[in-house]
């Protein structure tokens, strides 16, 4: 089946917005609105790449000739519905929906489960693809199912137990995520839930350079191969920021790029 491409907005020589505010653009930047549009984009370029929020992306100054797709329109860009299912409340969101906005909306409705992800800049799909998280939890903890399109154009819905989530990975790296179901629950106290959300954001603002042009934490927290004094024992997963700080990396600079004085993993 050949799908219609002329209804998809495709920009030429388009800039790619990232949190670094540097780097090249895309020869072609597509804005599909539906899964059929996305399948049409796959027919155009099987090696297309999906641009999320651009928060952990550094683009080559020469840009890219691969088709870049951003899911910022149509059904991809919104929270599609909230349903009660027994003790859980299921939020269905398009892959391009904004994670911070989803957190604010869930707290407003008194739903807990993703408030610990506050301060993480991402689309829902991007957060799931890399299993975004931090000290207060990871998105895998609340994923109920994920709808994906394979590079061969197969549309599938994967339940949580069929997804190979791990530390900052999902096993979905070669799929195109189109929508996600999140399993939340009613908070006993909306006041406490709101206080928890504010506490997470206050902690991050105090300890991280959130206003700077960065990609957030650059390195995964490593697992020690041997005992390291004042850092941990063999097998421990330790803070990459603390390890970089101990190595004297804070403030290290190359040209305009610098390791943050506030948090060495930025």
How is this structure best described in words?
By secondary structure, this protein is α+β, with helices and mostly antiparallel strands. The protein is 19% helix and 24% strand. The chain has five helices and 14 strands. The radius of gyration is 20 Å and the shape is globular.
Features:
266 residues, alpha+beta, 6-stranded antiparallel beta sheet, 4-stranded mixed beta sheet, 5 helices, 19% helix
Largest sheet: 6 strands, antiparallel
How much of the sequence is in beta strands? 15-25%
Helix content, binned percent: 10-25%
Q: How many beta strands in the DSSP annotation?
A: 14
Structural class: alpha+beta
> What's the SSE pattern?
EEHEEEEHEHEEEEEHHEE
Shape: globular
Question: Helix segment count?
Answer: 5
């Amino acid at each position: 089946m050949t799908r219609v491409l002329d209804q998809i907005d495709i920009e030429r020589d388009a800039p790619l917005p990232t949190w670094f505010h540097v780097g090249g653009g895309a020869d072609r930047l597509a804005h599909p609105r539906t899964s059929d549009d996305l399948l049409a984009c796959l027919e155009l370029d099987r090696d297309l790449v999906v641009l999320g929020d651009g928060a952990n992306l550094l683009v080559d100054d020469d840009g890219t000739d691969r088709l870049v797709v951003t899911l910022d329109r149509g059904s991809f860009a919104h929270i599609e519905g909230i349903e009660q299912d027994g003790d859980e409340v299921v939020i269905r969101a398009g892959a391009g929906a904004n994670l911070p906005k989803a957190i604010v909306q869930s707290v407003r409705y008194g739903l807990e489960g993703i408030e610990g992800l506050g301060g993480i800049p991402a689309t829902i799909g991007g957060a799931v693809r890399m299993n975004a998280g931090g000290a207060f939890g990871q998105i895998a903890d609340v994923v109920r199912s994920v709808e994906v399109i394979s590079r061969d154009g197969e549309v599938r819905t994967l339940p949580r137990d069929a997804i190979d989530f791990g530390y900052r990975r999902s096993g979905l790296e070669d799929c195109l995520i189109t929508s996600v179901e999140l399993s939340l629950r009613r908070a006993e106290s909306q006041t406490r839930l709101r206080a928890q959300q504010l506490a997470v954001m206050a902690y991050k603002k105090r300890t991280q350079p959130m206003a700077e042009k960065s990609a957030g934490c650059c390195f995964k927290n490593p697992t020690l191969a041997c005992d390291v004094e004042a850092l941990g024992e063999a097998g421990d997963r330790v803070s990459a920021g603390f390890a970089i700080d101990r190595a004297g990396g804070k403030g290290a600079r190359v040209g305009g790029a610098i390791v943050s004085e506030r948090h060495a993993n930025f």
